[in-house]
Design a protein that fits this description.
By secondary structure, this protein is mainly beta. It has one helix at residues 2-20; strands spanning 25-27, 31-34, 38-41, 46-49, 53-56, 71-74, 80-83, 88-90, 93-96, 99-102, 107-108, 113-115, 140-142, 147-148, 153-154, 159-160, 165-166, 171-172, 175-176, 180-183, 188-192. The chain is globular, with a radius of gyration of 17 Å.
Length: 199
Amino acid sequence: MLRKLSNLLSYIYFLIFYFFHRQGIHLNGRVIVKGIPIIELVKGAIIDIGEMVTLNSSNHKYHINMFAPVKLIADNTEAKIIIGSNTRIHGTCIHAKKYISIGANCLIAANTNIMDCDGYNVSFENVKNRLGTIGNAKKIIIKDNVWIGTSCIILPGSIIGEGSVIGAGSVVKGEIPPYCLAVGSPAKVVKIYDHPQSQ
């Protein structure tokens, strides 16, 4: 009973947040909210959430320990986060300065970080100025039906092909082809599966 009340209060909180930020948050149907997510967006930024997306910030009945709530950050006037229908996001940070697209039917496990920007430039020509820089941003595209295991890091410019699985603790930089298993840091393809259309 208390768990249902907690989920209801989380959903009401989300709806209130949406009401005050509705120019920037686009809901395309019902959203499932467990626990209270952290959502930050500046004026002009867009967070587009598909139908039946799950934003889970609660450890209750989740199979691993979740260290923090879901965090959606769109902190540039042109930043855009798109989350496709029926995608489940657990205790993950998604930080866009430019563009992050997550397809439909994706599974994103807890403690994952998806960021299209670096915090700072490496600035080796003037390391004293490093703290005064703003990192570059490159689009991230995660196609439909992707499964990202726990504690992964998806770096700027990455593309993950449809149906692929990223093993727990992996760091993705660059392109991962469709229908494959990729693991490691940096993530490498260890197995490619036949596309359903080729059978």
